[in-house]
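Question: Hello, beginner here. Any chance you could explain the protein record under this note? Any guidance would be welcome.
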Amino acid sequence: MTATARALPLLDPDARLVIGHRGASAEAPENTLAAFRRAADLGVDGFEFDVRVTADGVAVVIHDPQLERTTGRADIVAASPLAHLREADAGARFTADGGRTFPWRGRGVVIPTLDEVLDAFPAMLLILEVKVPEAQTAVREALLRHDATARCVVCAIPHAAIAAFRRPPFLRGASRRDIARLWLGSQVGLASAARDCRCFAVPVQHGKIHVTTDRFLAAARRLGRPVHVWTVDDPAKAASLWARGVSGILTNAPGAMPRPPRSSVGGI
């Protein structure tokens, strides 16, 4: 194990981590300080969350390009200044019972800035997904401003959205292109990954493709790259994935997850 992996469990293939997916988003509105606080109270090892950028250049924590699903408003994040986005009720659409009740509506929950999350949780491990290339500058500046680069892995779906994080002090995770490269190679017995890609955060399934095959996990382990899997809310499924060599489980329900020991697996 490298010194960096010892220092940062997110880069340790033998760690067994519980990571709050957008916080404890089964219990509180996703990607809000309320969800992150609940996840921290439940003892998670880290958070995973999404970042976009406002019209006035502020990094904000939100998944969708539009506010409709979470707030009921039709505003576009990239076209709105921060002050306008802060008027939205980020708890308006949260429900844990299929829409019968909306317990967080009208409670003053807002879309947080990245600065607010970094300031509120100064020691938490983070998997940060940059949703669009335009958000890179604001994300870089916030991570540097809060001295958070050593505890944060930056991932993205579009490869262009993590171009700014390829060199130290930043820790770059996988893009969709990185994942596809390793997955396709693993099917024919090859294990290769970009040198600056430090870990993989992947779905269990992508469309009809089962991503977390034994070959994929074995290929990642041969490269010394941990695999973190989203989104898993079933404790039995989480236990199975950990037993197969997965390092981190990204879950909406961290309180339901078992607490496994570190892996003793030398190879899969």
About this structure: The first strand starts at residue 17 and ends at 21.
